[in-house]
Amino acid sequence: MRTSHRLLLRLFFDPQFDFDRVRVVYVNRGAPADRSSATGSMIRRLDADYMEIAADDRITCIPYHRITAILYDGGIVWERPGSTRAEESG
């Protein structure tokens, strides 16, 4: 099974994909349903241990183990086994 990090790297670097069409759903304690999401255009960097998201004039580091789903064009291309449905986070 491909890891979320490896899939994000592929979607970012492979010219057949448009990274702006990616949406990453992740655990965010305190957010509605403890979930948030970020579009590809919000992701500034894919580090070895986390991704950097730019939102509200700040950078937030999200470790890959908090990712629950990756969507491309609205369809799920990766989902953590046992996680809640990705569509629940807008």
From TrEMBL:
Record domain MJ1316 RNA cyclic group end recognition: where: 1-80
Protein name as catalogued: MJ1316 RNA cyclic group end recognition domain-containing protein
Source organism per UniProt: hydrocarbon metagenome
